[in-house]
Amino acid sequence: MGTEQNQFNNSDKLITRITAWIAGFILLGLSVWGGLTLWDLWKYEETEDAQIEEYINPVTSRVGGFIRDIRYEENQPVKKGDTLLIIDNREYQLGQEEAEAALLNAKAQISVLKSTVETSSKNATVNEGQIAAAKAKLWHQEQEFARYEKLLQVEAVTQQQFENAKTALEVAKADYQSFLDTYQASLSKVNDIKVQQEVALAEIQRREAILDRNKLDVSYTVVTAPYDGKMGRKTIQNGQMIQAGQTLAYIVDQQEGKWVIANFKETQIRHMHTGQMVDIETDALPGEHFNGKIVSLSPATGSRFSLLPPDNSTGNFVKITQRIPVRILLTDAKSKTESLRAGMNAMVLVKKGV
After folding, report:
1. Does a structural domain hold residue 15?
2. pTM for the whole thing?
3. Cβ contact 276:294 at 8 Å
4. Which residues are CB-contacts of 230 (< 8 A; sequence separation ≥ 6)?
5. Of 153, 272, 287, 344, which has fewest CB within 10 angstroms of its CB?
6. Could you give the angle at which helices 159-220 and 90-153 cross, rounded to 10 degrees?
């Protein structure tokens, strides 16, 4: 009985010792973990309220029509200028041809007016020659009338002959005035045609503008990628009717890079400033760290940019810690951040006082 009792005592002591060692190791581990946690809390500010961001822009149609061909697939990488889809352009092509014909007609009107100006100028020149002849004839009739007037005073001619000379003088005056009026009318017609030319030139400019607009409409029927990126979800089909301004697809801009929007508590941002380096880790790639740099801090809390910002003057007041969005630019090489996607959750660590 004594031997068995000693064996039980030895076993209890061994178990007690092992338990004490295990408890000691656990206590030591918890102490180390607690110390590191307290160190991190003292040296760093961190938040898990952060997401990866990229520019995701809509691709919209500038003209309406039926889709003739779609040349991209969902999630397909594209380069700037790649054709995404083609809209049936036959109606716009007819409009362009009509505008071209109207422009040719307006230019033809200029040629007609130039020809009319030349004809009217020649008529004015002919009228100017007729004026000279009528002036000479008038001078001759004035001389004749003067002679007949003197001869009548000495009764060398009859009263009838004198009256005939007077009538011929009046006719010569009327002819001279008529040619003067005709010449002035010819000059006025030339001026009128020149004014019509200015109107026709303005019409040509208007027709050219209409033609340019029609050419733009034709070019808009080919929708291209505005920059290098990656296409989003495909929601359109061939033969579908679309309207001007309609969103056709979404493209993720890969030229502007990626960044993180981290929402820190208002009590944390006193240690942050522009240019400060940060450490980033994502839920999708645990253990892999990314480098970033603070580029800006929001001028207001996120709630102030909401559709219905809170108004603490209404109802009962409950104090809630607000968060400030902080924009962080990823500074790693593009090859390293290529696996990151917009909307991924991230954890951001900012060292205080750096």
Report:
1. no
2. 0.63
3. yes
4. 75, 76, 77, 78, 251, 252, 254
5. 287
6. 170
Return d(Cα 69, Cα 79) in angstroms, integer.
18
Distance of alpha carbon 222 from alpha carbon 85, whole angstroms: 6
Rounded-to-integer distance, Cα 67 and Cα 343, Å? 31
C-alpha–C-alpha distance, residues 257 and 335, integer Å:
11
Q: Which domain holds residue 332?
A: 44-56+254-351
Give CA–CA dist 182/233, Å, rounded. Answer: 78
DSSP class of residue 225 equals: -
pLDDT tens digits for 209-218?
Answer: 999 999 999 9
C-alpha 286/C-alpha 54 separation (Å) is: 21
Reduced to 3 states, what is the DSSP secondary structure of residue 338?
coil
Residue 287 inside a domain? The answer is yes
Question: Tokens standing for 160?
Answer: 């009838």
Q: Convert the pLDDT of each residue in 232-259 to its tens digit.
A: 888 899 999 999 999 999 999 888 889 9
In-domain check, residue 155: yes
Using CB atoms within 10 A of its CB, is residue 262 exposed (0-12), middle (13-18) or buried (19+)? buried
Tokens read off for 137: 């004839």
